[in-house]
Design a protein that fits this description.
Largest sheet: 5 strands, antiparallel
Low-confidence stretches: none
Oligomer: single chain
Number of helices: 3
Shape: globular
Number of strands: 7
Helix content: 10-25%
Length: 142
């Protein structure tokens, strides 16, 4: 797998439908490419779902974005790393880790960055659906 990519795959709070203030930042540096899939599994952390990679054929749905300008890579990802909790004090464990992943979109495989959960999932129930938005809608229905 290549060690560089100017794409990002988002599956949670940075997806367009969440209306998170950080989404405006994402769209400033990246252009929406469309929905895509990544091999992974979701777990319910209580306040929000988290994702971990898997080697089996279990997929999570998200959105793929292409960087507008390769020259802004370092700046844009430094800001996203901060948002995802990668920049921590000495001795603390980051909430997420940024990794390269194979992304499946329209019958093609692309390489993009993703933020995987970097803490224990012990005691967290697995979320069967591969779509965070659908899961949260079902969970929050009366």
């Amino acid at each position: 797998m290549s060690t560089t990519s100017h794409k990002i795959f988002v599956y949670g709070s940075l997806r367009s439908g969440f209306r998170n203030p950080a989404y405006e930042y994402l769209t400033r540096y990246f252009k929406y490419s469309g929905e895509a899939l990544v091999k992974g599994k979701f777990f319910d952390a209580g306040s929000h779902p988290v994702a971990l990679p898997t080697n089996d054929d279990h997929f999570i749905l998200g959105e793929l974005y292409n960087m507008n300008s390769e020259e802004e890579f370092s700046w844009a990802f430094t800001q996203l790393d901060d948002y995802e909790g990668l920049n921590v004090e000495i001795g603390e464990i980051p909430l997420y880790k940024r990794s390269l992943v194979e992304v499946y979109q329209n019958g093609e495989i692309q390489i993009a960055w993703i933020y995987w959960y970097n803490q224990s999932i012990s005691g967290m129930p697995e979320i069967e659906t591969g779509d965070v938005m659908r899961y949260l809608q079902q969970k929050n229905q009366p």
